[in-house]
Amino acid sequence: MHRTQILLEQEQYRLLGIEARKKGISVSALVRNLVDAHFQGEREPETDPLESIIGIGSGTGEAVGRDHNRYLYGSAAA
After folding, report:
1. What is d(CA 15, CA 78) in angstroms, rounded to the nearest whole number?
2. Neighbouring residues of 58: CB distance < 8 A, sequence distance ≥ 6
3. Three-state secondary structure readout of the chain
4. 10-23 vs 27-39: helix axis angle to the nearest 10?
5. Distance from the Cα of residue 70 to its chain's centroid
6. Contacts for 33 with CB less than 8 Å, ≥ 6 apart
7. Which of 5, 29, 35 is nearest to 17 (CA)?
8. pTM strictly above 0.70
9. CA distances for 38 relative to 33, 34, 41, 57, 62, angstroms
10. CA–CA distance from 78 to each of 29, 62, 68 (Å)?
């Protein structure tokens, strides 16, 4: 954890203290929670392992679903 100092207005510190006491946590923990909540969703997304398969099934754009048996088995099985 990184230690830092900030300057707060008296009212800001008072309000943080009230909220921290309500939650049963320290002012430091409350500030960390508020920072996390502020930046939630802005973090670098983790690489999805499934991204590596994107594009491996490229084709011509022809609708093969209708005649899938022909493409899978070489004939139009009923």
Report:
1. 73
2. none
3. CCCCCCCCCHHHHHHHHHHHHHHCCCHHHHHHHHHHHHHCCCCCCCCCHHHHHCCCCCCCCCCCCCCHHHHHHCCCCC
4. 90
5. 41
6. 25
7. 29
8. no
9. 9, 6, 9, 39, 46
10. 66, 21, 11
Tell me, what amino acid is at 42? E
Residue-wise pLDDT tens for the chain (78 aa)? 899 999 999 999 999 999 999 999 999 999 999 999 988 876 666 677 777 787 777 777 776 677 778 777 876 555
Question: What token pair was written down for 59?
Answer: 């084709």
